[in-house]
Amino acid sequence: MMKTIIEPFRIKSVEPIRFTTTEERERILQDAGYNPFMILADDVLIDLLTDSGTAAMSAKQWAGIMDGDESYAGARSFYKFESAVRDITGYKYIIPTHQGRAAEKILFTILGGAGKFVPNNTHFDTTRANIEYSGAEAIDLVIDEGKDPDSLHPFKGNMDIEKLEKFIKERGPENIPIGMMTVTNNAGGGQPVSMENLRAVKNVLKKYNIPFFLDACRFAENSYFIKLREEGYADKSVKEIAQEMFSLADGCTMSAKKDALVNMGGFLAMNDENLAQSARNILIVTEGFPTYGGLSGRDLEAIAQGFVEVVDEHYLRYRLRSTEYLGEKLMDAGVPILRPPGGHAIYLNARGFTPHIPPEKFPGQSIVCELYRFGGIRAVEIGSVMFGKTDKKTGNFIPATMELVRLAIPRRVYTQSHIDYVVEVIIEMYKGRESLKGYNIVYEAPMLRHFTARFEPIT
Ligand SMILES: *Cc1c(COP(=O)(O)O)cnc(C)c1O
Questions:
Q1: CB-CB neighbours of 32 under 10 Å
Q2: What pTM was computed for the model?
Q3: What is the sign of the dihedral through the CA atoms of 363, 368, 369 and 374?
Q4: Number of folded domains in the chain?
Q5: What is the mean pLDDT of the chain?
Q6: Is pLDDT above 90 for 14?
Q7: How far is the CA of 215 from the centre of ligand 1 (A)?
Q8: pLDDT tens digits for range 417-449
């Protein structure tokens, strides 16, 4: 008999969530300019805005918080953190930072610069921003299936190896200081990368003497996908799979706010001694002394324990299954989503959900607002609000490639009945989708407008 995959924990400490009425939420939405980023978290019933820094920590992590050593130099907590991270990554030099983007900033301050190119499957937005800020160019080379919302390829995060080699030959290996792979591919829907593909990327980069780094934010989720989907890995432990993944690369950047199961933190790790020396020199200027980076001793304790818990296979089975569960229920009801479900989020395909709303009237924003108005659920638009542009010369609207709404699942926070409620709200909304009308932007900032834009509903 197939048994329900249950939450592999019981709840020791709870945080109440606040219930509001539809009328209250209509007023809150109006006051927020119809932008869920501007809604107070206390006014949200179920918050699926992001899986970053929103995990529930375990009793052992909280115990570690009390036990943190806050010494400036040589703190015990640092050595615990270093040994936990080294146990899985195998890297010689491990440099703590306050979050993932701080690790990126240090890496590209050293390796970036004008005339340089950095390939990746798909750069996450902070990675791209740090590369571009250094003057270098960030290039996405994910396989074509990774850009098709309906392709059922098991590893949609893979890199196109032919494109990679062609790219290196065209631009010259001397202009490519580093190659990266993001596991799982966050910007591409949380889709995994196969070990075979990581090995192929490594071999191409090695042939041209280019160092290879992982953007390792969701390394454990990626490892479990490999165990489930890649031939030859079913009988390996997730820890062994993760160790093998890291062994193919020369280093990594990591946001501990994802797969280290903590609320703040990150690190940069590598085997190259000279690179580590340069990184530590910058770290001291921007983050702090090498045995704490931008973190407190207690944060390092929590990360060390998070690294032990995140490769637990009962946890990962529950984690991937609970995301897939949400996706399956929506697909069964005919709701269009990006397939197959990723590791950390489900993406509604707004183009299919509200085909009567054109991209310039922001179908994703309409769905995000209705999710909140109708159900008190907060999600994020990843479509033309975030990536759409107006052509400066012609004044024409240029839509995003996809119109998506991301429902990110915080780690260990919500139970199956919370998710069942989310499913009910979305199915009910889908039935009434023709009543959704779209929005106009009435205010936008010159950059990253989605965070602060204000909207007006079309009536
Ligand atoms: C979150 C994230 C980052 C940046 O990490 P922060 O901790 O938010 O600075 C980088 N890459 C990927 C893939 C991420 O998901």
A1: 19
A2: 0.95
A3: positive
A4: 2
A5: 96
A6: yes
A7: 8
A8: 999 999 999 999 999 999 999 999 999 988 788
Distance 257 CA to ligand 1 centre (A): 8
Domain span at residue 446? 22-51+312-457
- pLDDT over 90 for what percent of the chain? 92
* 99 vs 113: CA distance, rounded Å: 22
Does 394 reside within a domain?
Answer: yes
411, 329: one domain:
yes
Q: Is 439 in the pocket of ligand 1 (CB under 6 A)?
A: no
Q: Are 310 and 318 in contact (CB under 8 A)?
A: no
Is there a contact between 245 and 213 (Cβ–Cβ < 8 Å)? no
Contact, 369 vs 435, CB < 8 A? no
CB of 126 sitting under 6 A from ligand 1? yes
Under the banding of pLDDT at 50, 70 and 90, the label for residue 125 is confident
Atom of ligand 1 at shortest range from CA of 101: 9
Q: Which residue's CA lies nearest to atom 5 of ligand 1?
A: 100
Helices 219-229 and 238-248, packing angle to 10 deg: 110
State whether the beta carbon of 98 lies less than 6 angstroms from ligand 1.
no
Ligand 1 midpoint to CA 166 (Å): 28
Residue closest via CA to ligand 1's atom 8 equals 100
184 ligand 1 Cβ < 6 A:
no
Angle at the Cα of 373 (from 370 to 379), degrees rounded to 5?
A: 60
Residues 304 and 374 both lie in one domain: no
How does residue 196 score in pLDDT terms, banded at 50, 70 and 90? very high
